[in-house]
Amino acid sequence: MRILVDTNIILSAALFPEGKVSRVFSYLLEAHTVVIASYSIQECKTVFMKKFPDKIDCLKAFLLKIDYEPFKTPKKLDAHDFPPMRDASDLPVLASAILSDVDILLTGDKDFEGIGIKKPLIFTPNQYFDLIQK
Which domains does the chain have, with CATH numbers? Predict the structure, then answer.
């Protein structure tokens, strides 16, 4: 199964290696193909430089040690080509998930709730954690 992880998942896993999101991320790396969009990598770098500049090496090390499939997010996206979203700034993530043809989008962003698409399935880390515990 191919699973695209949103920026907030990468941030949580990199910053809190003992947390639940990190455990879910580790499971994904072992059991599935993790896909990371170029948009999310850039967004992670921006967030780290703004909020955690002293930990940018933590992000770089994290991205170097994990095995993932990169997906190049298109530079130009037409919102009319994708399902409507509450927060238009999340369009690159949704577009990357759809265009990369992943099975699941894993995100902690509540703006993805209620998007009426069949593929990819959209899970929060808690939902996915509950799923793998069964």
Answer: 2-133 (3.40.50.1010)
